[in-house]
Amino acid sequence: MTSTPLNTLSVGTAGPRVAFLHGLFGQGRNWNQIAKAVAGSHGRDARCLLVDLPDHGRSPWSTDFSFDAYADAVATTLRSAAPGERWTVVGHSLGGKTAMVLALRRPELVERLAVVDIAPKSYGSLERFEGYIAEMQGLPLDAVTSRADAEARFEEPDPGVKAFLLQNLRREGHRWYWQANLELIAADAARGTGSRMAGWPAEVESLPPYGGPVLWIAGGDSRYVKREDGDHMRALFPRARLLTIKGAGHWVHTDAPEIVVGALRRLVATPA
């Protein structure tokens, strides 16, 4: 993993520092509308940084995956953006696990934490994403003539999921390519129950608990956070407070943006 800071997008001009970490196949800009709302109408309520995780968006690729390496890359990026300052870190799914590992390994950098629809545990495999990966690998990039052509060829029936995945498709001249490191993600998915992305790094279990305020957001219609996850979550993050949003799925911030914005604004105002 390179020590070069990750690609970022800034929103807001004053106030506390807030970093947003997206999920698998996402990009920092997926949080743009939420970040604008957290920053306020004049952009002075928070200074938000939307981060492209390694192997995603415009950030560098890696040759192997580990949560430690992802967390270290985010730490390098935050320190470069605001030397000596502390952050509220918001992470969804893959980004949520990265945010938790960052808080446990670098607590001096994280003032507050928001974990969105993920728990500190292994989910076994990337089975839910295997179909998406196969669809992306199956798109004949050499034959694609336009973005409309790519959309017509892409077989995903859910229009929201299709748009989310195809945001990773880029063109350079006449050449189309995947901006996400699809080869690395597919190799991790091929590990089955040994997937590192679906897993949880055992080494962080021996670290001291993170003592800052933690907002734990779960989608009421999602299966990623279960009641039995609470004890382990609070062992690692004693100040965790669970907010379950009814009617929201795994992409909670897309399904219930106003509730998420309100909760994040309250978190940012919470004394550390």
Automatic annotation (TrEMBL):
Which keywords belong to this entry?
Hydrolase
Q: Does the keyword Glycoprotein apply?
A: no
Q: Which molecular-function annotation in GO is an example for this chain?
A: hydrolase activity
The family database entries (Pfam families) matched by this protein are listed as: Abhydrolase_1 (PF00561)
Q: Where is the AB hydrolase-1 domain?
A: 16-256
Looking up Gene3D superfamilies in the UniProt record yields: alpha/beta hydrolase
Q: What is this protein called?
A: Esterase
What's the source species for this entry? Intrasporangium oryzae NRRL B-24470
